[in-house]
Design brief:
The protein is an alpha/beta fold and 198 residues long. It has 10 helices and 8 strands. Strands 1-2-3-4-5-6-7-8 form an 8-stranded parallel barrel, surrounded by 6 helices. Bound molecules: the ligand Cc1ncc(COP(=O)(O)OP(=O)(O)O)c(N)n1, the ligand Cc1nc(C(=O)O)sc1CCOP(=O)(O)O and magnesium ion. One of its GO terms (molecular function) is thiamine-phosphate diphosphorylase activity.
Protein backbone atom coordinates (compact mmCIF):
# COMPACT_ATOMS: atom_id res chain seq x y z
CA UNK A 1 0.00 0.00 0.00
CA UNK A 2 1.46 3.34 -0.98
CA UNK A 3 -0.97 5.68 0.78
CA UNK A 4 0.29 7.58 3.80
CA UNK A 5 -1.00 6.44 7.21
CA UNK A 6 -2.00 9.99 8.20
CA UNK A 7 -5.07 11.25 6.35
CA UNK A 8 -6.37 14.67 7.48
CA UNK A 9 -9.57 16.15 6.07
CA UNK A 10 -10.04 19.89 5.47
CA UNK A 11 -12.84 22.06 4.13
CA UNK A 12 -10.80 24.72 2.35
CA UNK A 13 -7.64 24.96 0.27
CA UNK A 14 -6.24 27.46 2.78
CA UNK A 15 -5.78 24.55 5.19
CA UNK A 16 -3.88 22.61 2.54
CA UNK A 17 -1.65 25.62 1.88
CA UNK A 18 -0.75 25.66 5.59
CA UNK A 19 -0.41 21.92 6.20
CA UNK A 20 1.13 20.47 3.03
CA UNK A 21 4.54 22.12 3.66
CA UNK A 22 4.67 20.30 7.02
CA UNK A 23 4.75 16.94 5.23
CA UNK A 24 1.10 15.89 4.81
CA UNK A 25 1.10 13.34 1.96
CA UNK A 26 -2.56 12.28 1.86
CA UNK A 27 -5.39 14.76 2.30
CA UNK A 28 -9.10 15.07 1.63
CA UNK A 29 -10.94 18.19 0.54
CA UNK A 30 -14.44 17.96 2.03
CA UNK A 31 -16.57 20.88 0.89
CA UNK A 32 -20.21 21.14 1.90
CA UNK A 33 -22.92 23.62 0.88
CA UNK A 34 -20.93 25.77 -1.50
CA UNK A 35 -21.78 27.14 -4.94
CA UNK A 36 -20.57 25.10 -7.89
CA UNK A 37 -18.07 27.81 -8.89
CA UNK A 38 -16.53 27.75 -5.41
CA UNK A 39 -16.32 23.96 -5.45
CA UNK A 40 -14.60 24.00 -8.83
CA UNK A 41 -12.13 26.70 -7.80
CA UNK A 42 -11.35 24.97 -4.48
CA UNK A 43 -10.75 21.62 -6.13
CA UNK A 44 -8.49 23.14 -8.81
CA UNK A 45 -6.43 25.05 -6.24
CA UNK A 46 -6.14 21.97 -3.98
CA UNK A 47 -5.16 19.77 -6.93
CA UNK A 48 -2.32 22.14 -7.83
CA UNK A 49 -1.15 22.48 -4.22
CA UNK A 50 -1.05 18.70 -3.76
CA UNK A 51 0.84 18.20 -7.00
CA UNK A 52 3.39 20.82 -5.99
CA UNK A 53 3.95 19.03 -2.66
CA UNK A 54 3.87 15.45 -3.95
CA UNK A 55 0.73 14.71 -1.97
CA UNK A 56 -2.35 12.65 -2.86
CA UNK A 57 -5.60 14.67 -2.97
CA UNK A 58 -8.89 12.90 -2.34
CA UNK A 59 -11.97 14.90 -3.34
CA UNK A 60 -15.04 14.23 -1.22
CA UNK A 61 -18.49 13.93 -2.85
CA UNK A 62 -17.93 16.05 -5.99
CA UNK A 63 -17.04 13.25 -8.39
CA UNK A 64 -17.96 15.06 -11.62
CA UNK A 65 -15.87 18.11 -10.72
CA UNK A 66 -13.02 15.80 -9.73
CA UNK A 67 -13.19 14.14 -13.15
CA UNK A 68 -13.35 17.50 -14.94
CA UNK A 69 -10.35 18.77 -12.94
CA UNK A 70 -8.24 15.71 -13.72
CA UNK A 71 -8.01 14.62 -10.09
CA UNK A 72 -6.81 11.18 -9.06
CA UNK A 73 -9.01 10.20 -6.10
CA UNK A 74 -12.64 10.52 -4.99
CA UNK A 75 -14.28 9.59 -1.69
CA UNK A 76 -17.94 8.58 -1.76
CA UNK A 77 -20.33 7.62 1.01
CA UNK A 78 -23.27 5.27 0.63
CA UNK A 79 -25.73 7.97 -0.44
CA UNK A 80 -23.18 9.45 -2.83
CA UNK A 81 -22.79 6.01 -4.40
CA UNK A 82 -26.53 5.93 -5.19
CA UNK A 83 -26.11 8.89 -7.52
CA UNK A 84 -22.55 8.54 -8.80
CA UNK A 85 -21.63 7.19 -12.24
CA UNK A 86 -19.03 4.63 -11.20
CA UNK A 87 -18.27 3.70 -14.80
CA UNK A 88 -17.47 7.33 -15.63
CA UNK A 89 -15.31 7.58 -12.50
CA UNK A 90 -13.37 4.45 -13.45
CA UNK A 91 -13.16 5.47 -17.13
CA UNK A 92 -11.55 8.73 -16.03
CA UNK A 93 -8.98 6.71 -14.07
CA UNK A 94 -9.97 7.95 -10.63
CA UNK A 95 -9.34 5.78 -7.62
CA UNK A 96 -12.28 5.29 -5.28
CA UNK A 97 -12.44 5.44 -1.47
CA UNK A 98 -15.73 4.53 0.19
CA UNK A 99 -17.37 4.88 3.62
CA UNK A 100 -18.83 1.95 5.52
CA UNK A 101 -20.63 1.69 8.84
CA UNK A 102 -22.24 -1.75 8.89
CA UNK A 103 -22.21 -5.21 7.33
CA UNK A 104 -24.58 -4.42 4.48
CA UNK A 105 -22.58 -1.37 3.46
CA UNK A 106 -19.35 -3.35 3.50
CA UNK A 107 -20.84 -6.10 1.32
CA UNK A 108 -22.08 -3.49 -1.09
CA UNK A 109 -18.79 -1.67 -1.52
CA UNK A 110 -16.56 -4.73 -1.72
CA UNK A 111 -18.40 -5.59 -4.94
CA UNK A 112 -17.17 -2.25 -6.34
CA UNK A 113 -13.46 -3.08 -5.91
CA UNK A 114 -12.72 0.08 -3.91
CA UNK A 115 -9.19 1.41 -3.56
CA UNK A 116 -9.74 1.94 0.16
CA UNK A 117 -12.54 1.26 2.61
CA UNK A 118 -13.23 3.59 5.52
CA UNK A 119 -14.87 2.39 8.72
CA UNK A 120 -16.46 4.86 11.10
CA UNK A 121 -17.12 6.27 13.50
CA UNK A 122 -14.46 4.32 15.40
CA UNK A 123 -14.88 6.79 18.28
CA UNK A 124 -17.68 9.34 18.80
CA UNK A 125 -17.39 12.31 16.48
CA UNK A 126 -18.48 15.89 17.05
CA UNK A 127 -18.17 16.85 13.37
CA UNK A 128 -21.53 15.60 12.23
CA UNK A 129 -24.59 13.80 13.52
CA UNK A 130 -24.45 10.09 12.76
CA UNK A 131 -26.89 7.27 13.33
CA UNK A 132 -24.10 4.81 14.23
CA UNK A 133 -22.64 4.51 17.69
CA UNK A 134 -18.88 4.24 18.03
CA UNK A 135 -17.63 1.07 16.34
CA UNK A 136 -14.71 0.39 18.69
CA UNK A 137 -11.34 -1.23 18.06
CA UNK A 138 -12.51 -4.89 17.79
CA UNK A 139 -14.64 -3.78 14.85
CA UNK A 140 -11.52 -2.29 13.19
CA UNK A 141 -9.82 -5.68 13.51
CA UNK A 142 -12.87 -7.45 12.10
CA UNK A 143 -13.09 -5.02 9.17
CA UNK A 144 -9.42 -5.49 8.29
CA UNK A 145 -9.90 -9.26 8.17
CA UNK A 146 -12.83 -8.75 5.82
CA UNK A 147 -11.27 -6.22 3.44
CA UNK A 148 -8.00 -8.14 3.10
CA UNK A 149 -5.47 -6.30 0.96
CA UNK A 150 -7.70 -3.26 0.46
CA UNK A 151 -6.38 -0.40 2.64
CA UNK A 152 -8.60 0.23 5.68
CA UNK A 153 -9.15 3.80 6.92
CA UNK A 154 -10.29 4.38 10.50
CA UNK A 155 -12.26 7.60 10.99
CA UNK A 156 -14.32 9.26 13.71
CA UNK A 157 -13.09 10.85 16.93
CA UNK A 158 -9.46 10.26 16.07
CA UNK A 159 -6.66 11.92 18.01
CA UNK A 160 -2.88 11.72 18.19
CA UNK A 161 -3.29 9.67 21.36
CA UNK A 162 -5.76 7.21 19.82
CA UNK A 163 -4.03 6.74 16.46
CA UNK A 164 -1.45 4.09 17.52
CA UNK A 165 -4.18 1.84 18.96
CA UNK A 166 -6.28 2.15 15.82
CA UNK A 167 -3.31 1.22 13.62
CA UNK A 168 -2.47 -1.65 15.93
CA UNK A 169 -6.07 -2.89 15.70
CA UNK A 170 -5.69 -3.24 11.93
CA UNK A 171 -6.30 0.11 10.27
CA UNK A 172 -3.77 1.01 7.60
CA UNK A 173 -4.67 4.71 7.66
CA UNK A 174 -6.16 7.08 10.24
CA UNK A 175 -8.33 9.97 9.09
CA UNK A 176 -9.06 13.04 11.21
CA UNK A 177 -10.77 16.42 11.21
CA UNK A 178 -11.43 18.25 14.48
CA UNK A 179 -8.42 17.01 16.42
CA UNK A 180 -6.52 19.29 14.04
CA UNK A 181 -8.96 21.99 12.96
CA UNK A 182 -10.17 22.80 16.49
CA UNK A 183 -6.73 22.58 18.06
CA UNK A 184 -5.23 25.81 19.40
CA UNK A 185 -2.09 25.08 17.36
CA UNK A 186 -3.07 23.08 14.26
CA UNK A 187 0.48 23.10 12.84
CA UNK A 188 1.91 21.59 16.03
CA UNK A 189 -0.87 19.02 16.04
CA UNK A 190 -0.12 18.01 12.44
CA UNK A 191 3.55 17.61 13.34
CA UNK A 192 2.54 15.36 16.23
CA UNK A 193 0.30 13.34 13.91
CA UNK A 194 3.15 12.87 11.43
CA UNK A 195 5.45 11.74 14.22
CA UNK A 196 3.00 9.19 15.60
CA UNK A 197 2.13 7.73 12.18
CA UNK A 198 5.61 7.58 10.65
C1 LIG B 1 -12.03 8.93 4.93
C2 LIG B 1 -13.48 9.25 5.00
N1 LIG B 1 -14.31 8.38 5.58
C3 LIG B 1 -15.63 8.66 5.66
C4 LIG B 1 -16.13 9.83 5.13
C5 LIG B 1 -17.59 10.13 5.17
O1 LIG B 1 -18.17 10.14 3.86
P1 LIG B 1 -19.76 10.29 3.73
O2 LIG B 1 -20.39 9.16 4.47
O3 LIG B 1 -20.11 10.44 2.32
O4 LIG B 1 -20.07 11.63 4.51
P2 LIG B 1 -19.57 13.10 4.16
O5 LIG B 1 -18.12 13.21 4.52
O6 LIG B 1 -19.76 13.33 2.69
O7 LIG B 1 -20.42 13.97 5.01
C6 LIG B 1 -15.22 10.71 4.54
N2 LIG B 1 -15.61 11.88 4.01
N3 LIG B 1 -13.91 10.39 4.47
C1 LIG C 1 -16.64 12.84 7.94
C2 LIG C 1 -16.81 11.68 8.84
N1 LIG C 1 -17.24 10.48 8.39
C3 LIG C 1 -17.36 9.58 9.37
C4 LIG C 1 -17.85 8.23 9.18
O1 LIG C 1 -17.95 7.48 10.17
O2 LIG C 1 -18.15 7.89 8.04
S1 LIG C 1 -16.88 10.18 10.87
C5 LIG C 1 -16.56 11.69 10.19
C6 LIG C 1 -16.08 12.86 10.99
C7 LIG C 1 -14.63 12.77 11.38
O3 LIG C 1 -14.34 13.93 12.07
P1 LIG C 1 -13.57 13.92 13.46
O4 LIG C 1 -12.18 13.44 13.19
O5 LIG C 1 -13.60 15.36 13.90
O6 LIG C 1 -14.33 13.02 14.40
MG1 LIG D 1 -20.23 12.07 1.12
Amino acid sequence: MNLDRFYPIFDHSDWLRRMLPLGVKLVQLRIKDQADAVVREQIAVSRDLCRAHGAVLVVNDHWQVAIDAGCDWIHLGQEDLDDADLKAIRRAGLKLGVSTHDDDELERVLAMSPDYVALGPVYPTILKKMKWKQQGLPRVTEWKARVGEVPLVGIGGMSVERAPGVLQAGADIVSVVTDITLNADPEARVRAWIEVTT
